[in-house]
Design brief:
This is Fermentation-respiration switch protein FrsA (DUF1100 family). It is built from 7 helices and 2 strands. It is mainly α and about 130 residues long.
């Protein structure tokens, strides 16, 4: 977090990402959590959403936090849902949650798990 602050990072979503991926006790001890600079063009240029209409035809449950961050997670989830051709799709927004809250903060996680469990029961059986 000190390095992020020293770089004048103030965006709450970026700071939440730093907390989770760089400082979390769930972080893998062998991970440097760093990108190779030469890989950025491929990462930023990759967009699988154009494949969704052809490839995603099964039931879909999208779960997003209500608070929209600067990284576009909410918008991407919405677009995924919109492009999915399945007639059985659900879009669920967890009130008061941000993207990273859905990783580990209760009751946000509890609501997401309940929704997923119901979807799995409906489509996979008990």
């Amino acid at each position: 977090m000190d390095a992020a602050r020293a770089a004048d990072v103030t965006d709450p979503e970026i700071l939440n990402a730093v907390r989770f991926y760089r400082e979390s006790p769930r972080r893998h001890s062998g991970s440097t959590n760093r990108l190779i600079f030469t890989s950025l063009a491929g990462i930023f240029g990759f967009d699988a959403l154009h494949l969704v209409p052809e490839m995603l035809r099964r039931p879909l449950q999208v779960i997003l936090g209500e608070r929209r961050g600067s990284n576009g997670q909410f918008e991407t989830g919405w677009e995924l849902s919109e492009r999915c051709t399945s007639l059985d799709k659900n879009f669920f927004v967890v009130d008061g949650a941000g993207h990273y809250d859905l990783y580990r903060k209760h009751p946000h996680v509890d609501l997401a798990v309940e929704r997923l469990a119901a979807s799995f029961r409906a489509h996979l059986g008990s």
